[in-house]
Design a protein that fits this description.
heterotrimer, A mainly alpha, B mainly alpha, C mainly alpha, A: mainly alpha, 3 helices, B: mainly alpha, flat
Chain lengths: ~100, ~100, ~300
């Protein structure tokens, strides 16, 4: 196995583990806002590590740029969605 | 290599779908929304991995759409907020 | 390994579908349905139908969810929650039996498929050169079977006319009101930041659709979602449905399609056949006009019947 393949596998597996951690957090954390916190880890780091791992496999430079753009867009939309969800949670239960 | 990428794709899909399976049974609407968000991101990651495993770069476009529209369902969810007294009376967290 | 993946995916789809049918809580069922759309998109990607996967991701993961959530919010306003939760005891029996029969019949049909499946794919790929396109799906949609696509777009507009006709007499020609009771701050931010990316991705989808998976319907759906986001955040009100520019945009795509179709009678072999030399520019032009029409139609379909009286 070459060095790049090893890099890909390590990153991608780490990303999968973060998704697992996000799910566990969603299920096990005590309140809505902490669960949201766990969720955003999967969004940011999980997807980020998988994109990072897949970068060396891309045939063209543009393919890689597109992957990075997908991740950046996910940062933007997921972060805003998280804020929205947190807002709904806070309005329903003042003080949370 | 394609085999191991497919395996990781399976793991990511299972991880995000397992969360959904359990959370959908809970009584709290926002947490279901959170699980759907997780499935959206997990689905995008799964598609990227599958695209690399099967050499179909067009799957990245599907992932792009999932990422773009995952926030959209959250926005749509605000439509029923703040006007449905029956819903607001529900507890936010099960004891 | 891919077999394990497919089995897991199918099991997830079936479980989710059952959950959507069985669950009593309306919003929970809608959220389950959105998740179902996301999974189904991955399913189409596994079947190597990337064009369908794109459509499913855009429609199932985006617009349908909003359509249902909007309908649910509307119902909640009109009907008391107790009346919504109360169901008749045996009401589910007849639909369950009917759905079961349909599922059995579909299963029987699928098992009876001839093997190998009859396919026109080789012919579709062989004739690609005459259209100047690289994506066989786009060639089928806009060249070989253009009449189906044309009628589909007209059906979309008829559906919109149907939705509009549900408005009260006073509100006819007015605008629909699509705003949550409280507009959260992040929603406004999202509606300012996301649409530029959405428009860019939609243009990319139309452009790439000629040669790679992508196309008008996906692009139109993305544009519709972005327009709805802007209306939802209250940045721009929904346009009055009597506005001439709006109606011209809605009818423009199919009208151009019909026009080019009749041009074919004059300069090519018949209705909806393109002169070979300019087939590709014609197809891309029709696609651009159709994208705008689809975007407007879908956005207004989701926004619902007008409920605000027109200004004049």
């Amino acid at each position: 196995m070459g060095l790049t393949e090893a890099f890909t596998l390590v990153c991608v597996v780490a990303g999968a583990i973060l998704f697992l951690a996000g799910t566990l957090g969603l299920l096990r954390f005590p309140d809505t806002l902490s669960r949201l916190h766990a969720l955003s880890k999967a969004d940011n780091l999980g997807l980020g590590l998988i994109v990072l791992g897949l970068l060396p496999l891309q045939a063209s430079l543009m393919g890689g740029v597109k992957l990075v753009c997908i991740w950046l867009l996910a940062q933007l939309s997921a972060a805003t969605a998280t804020q929205l969800i947190a807002g709904i949670a806070a309005r329903r239960k003042p003080g949370a | 290599m394609p085999e191991s990428l497919t395996l990781v794709a399976l793991l990511v899909l299972l991880a995000s779908a397992a969360g959904l399976a359990i959370v959908l049974r809970s009584a709290v609407a926002i947490e279901k929304l959170m699980a759907v968000q997780l499935l959206g991101t997990g689905g995008a990651a799964t598609l990227l991995l599958l695209g690399a495993a099967t050499a179909q770069p067009a799957l990245a476009d599907v992932a792009l759409l999932l990422v773009l529209l995952s926030a959209f369902s959250c926005a749509a969810f605000t439509l029923g907020e703040g006007e449905d007294p029956g819903d607001a009376a529900k507890p936010d967290e099960p004891a | 390994m891919s077999l394990v993946f497919d089995i897991a995916l199918v099991a997830g789809l079936i479980a989710l579908a059952l959950h959507v049918v069985v669950t009593r809580d309306g919003r929970g069922a809608i959220l389950g349905f959105i998740a179902f759309g996301l999974l189904l998109g991955i399913g189409w990607a596994r079947l190597a139908s990337v064009d369908v996967a794109l459509t499913e991701a855009a429609i199932g993961g985006g617009l349908t969810g909003m359509l249902l959530l909007r309908a649910h919010a509307h119902l909640g306003r009109e009907i008391a929650p107790e009346a919504m939760a109360r169901g008749e005891p045996r009401r589910w029996l007849a639909p369950a039996i009917a759905s079961g029969l349909v599922a059995l019949a579909l299963g029987a049909v699928v098992l009876a498929f001839p093997r190998p499946a009859p396919s026109l794919a080789p012919q579709a790929v062989a004739a690609l050169e005459t259209t100047g396109l690289g994506n066989p799906v786009t060639a089928v949609l806009l060249a070989y079977r253009a009449i189906d696509t044309l009628l589909e777009k007209i059906v979309l507009i008829l559906a919109l006319v149907g939705v509009w006709s549900l408005s009260r007499d006073a509100a006819w020609g007015g605008a629909s009101q699509l705003r949550p009771a409280v507009i959260p701050e992040p929603l406004v931010f999202l509606a300012r930041v996301l649409p530029p990316f959405g428009v860019l991705i939609a243009v990319y989808q139309v452009w790439v659709g000629a040669d790679l998976p992508g196309g008008t319907f996906q692009a139109g759906t993305i544009l519709a979602a972005m327009a709805l986001l802007v209306m939802l955040a209250g940045l721009r009100p929904a346009p009055p449905t009597q506005a001439r520019a709006l109606r011209a945009m809605l009818a423009g795509g199919p009208a151009l399609f019909v026009l080019v179709g009749f041009l074919g009678v004059a300069v090519a072999q018949g209705f909806l056949s393109y002169p070979e030399a300019i087939a590709k520019p014609l197809i891309v032009g029709i696609e651009a006009a159709l994208t705008l029409s689809i975007a407007g139609t879908l956005a207004l379909l989701v926004a619902g019947p007008p409920d605000k009286a027109p200004a004049s």
